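2024-03-11 09:14:02 INFO worker-7 job=invfold-0412 stage=load source=structure_tokens
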């Protein structure tokens, strides 16, 4: 029976399709259950620390590195793909291999200690970690505990990159556009998310429809993007306007900015959902993270096609 590394190499080279790889893995796991002596121990059973996980056999590529993105859509069926040693969280360590991006920490309602512990575990297995909705006090605790963590106050986010490198200048990019200065925190959450996931971002802020000439003077930058995130509160009209001006996917983010009848973003949400311009998708109210994540998927999959 081929081992996991050999199966992954064949999938990456195109010599083995996903269905056949899955069948081989299932056969291997089935055999492991009938012959317990050959079954690898989990990290907890073997007394390993999270820095020496059995999951390395699944996640590492042929070069021995652990890249964020894998060229093949590889589904790990190993039980070692989960780290449940913290007790209150089950960390999905093989998510980069399946989806292209690591698991992201949602910081709201978690304690600073929980965020820091999860952050440390994820940093041991991947080259970048993102935590969203982290307030200033929690951010200070995590940054003090983990070297290299960067706090983005407006985005309420924490990021960590193993190599510490910034997204390179030049090349393709995502445009994050917001209607007003009050929408900037949500726009920043989208921008920081996309940047942490490896995409270059161009920010175009305060170009709402109340002074639409401000938008037109920035159209060349927006039209040059691979995907556009549009963040707007009030009546949310900016998404419709841009949807009729660009030839790339538009991801609309309604914000809770506005007076009483805006209903904390519901008016903007409904306006974006009912937009007559085609090519617009809509995420939830104030969900800058979801928009940035989707834009990064669009951008990086487009970049991969261009490279082949």
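2024-03-11 09:14:09 INFO worker-7 stage=emit residues=308
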């Amino acid at each position: 029976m081929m081992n996991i590394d050999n199966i992954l190499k064949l999938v990456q080279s195109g010599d083995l399709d996903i269905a056949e790889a899955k069948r081989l893995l299932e056969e291997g796991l089935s055999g492991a259950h009938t012959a317990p002596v050959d079954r690898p121990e989990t990290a907890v059973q073997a007394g390993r620390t999270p820095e020496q996980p059995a999951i390395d056999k699944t996640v590492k590529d042929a070069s021995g590195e652990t890249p964020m993105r894998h060229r093949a859509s590889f589904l790990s069926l190993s039980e070692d793909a989960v780290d449940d040693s913290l007790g209150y969280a089950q960390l999905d360590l093989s998510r980069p291999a399946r989806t292209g991006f690591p698991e992201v920490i949602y910081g709201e309602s978690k304690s600073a200690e929980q965020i820091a512990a999860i952050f440390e575990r994820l940093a041991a297995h991947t080259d970048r970690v993102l935590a969203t909705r982290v307030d200033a006090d929690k951010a200070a605790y995590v940054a003090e505990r983990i070297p290299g963590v960067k706090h983005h106050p407006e985005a309420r986010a924490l990021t960590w990159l193993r190599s510490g490198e910034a997204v390179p200048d030049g090349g393709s990019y995502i445009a994050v556009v917001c209607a007003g200065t009050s929408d900037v925190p949500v726009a920043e959450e989208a921008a920081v998310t996309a940047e942490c996931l490896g995409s270059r971002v161009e920010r175009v802020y305060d170009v709402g429809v109340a002074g639409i000439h401000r938008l037109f003077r920035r159209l060349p930058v927006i039209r040059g993007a691979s995907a556009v995130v549009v963040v707007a509160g009030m009546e949310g009209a900016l998404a419709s306007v841009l949807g009729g001006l660009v030839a790339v996917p538009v991801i609309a983010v309604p914000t809770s900015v506005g007076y009483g009848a805006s209903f904390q973003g519901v008016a903007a949400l409904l306006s974006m959902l009912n937009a007559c311009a085609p090519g617009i998708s809509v995420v939830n109210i104030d969900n800058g993270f979801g928009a940035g994540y989707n834009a990064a998927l669009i951008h990086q999959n487009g970049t991969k096609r261009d490279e082949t």
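2024-03-11 09:14:09 INFO worker-7 stage=report msg="Residues 32-76 have pLDDT under 50 and may be disordered."
2024-03-11 09:14:10 INFO worker-7 job finished
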